[in-house]
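#onboarding

Welcome to the new folks! Below is a worked example of what a typical request in this channel looks like: someone posts a single protein sequence, and someone else replies with the predicted structure as tokens. Don't worry about understanding the tokens yet, we'll cover that in week two.

Example request:
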Amino acid sequence: EVQLQASGGGLVQAGGSRRLSCEASGFTSDDYAIGWIRQAPGKEREAISCISSTDGTLYYSDSVKDRFTISGDNAKNTVYLQMNSLKPEDTAVYYCAAREGCSRWYQGYDYWGQGTLVTVSS
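Example response:
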């Protein structure tokens, strides 16, 4: 059974940094991708980043490009999202999710972890 656990959310001041973690387990093959999806108040879910374990594909949405960095630690089966230069509009519940390959559409992901709340204050 695929299980994902997101963590690292909290309160951070605008301009600051925060690192989220997603621990993955239960995959029966090495062909999978981990994505980060967020949902801000009053807005639809947005797939903001993804990393593939097989081909190294990386994806960033325009809203986080040049500020966020996705990376993985294979030994720990963990994917990270380093968030820098945070803005109040980054406030959202952040989810990690998995599928066979990266998708730019949040509805394309098959497995989901619990969300972690990131609140960016002015």
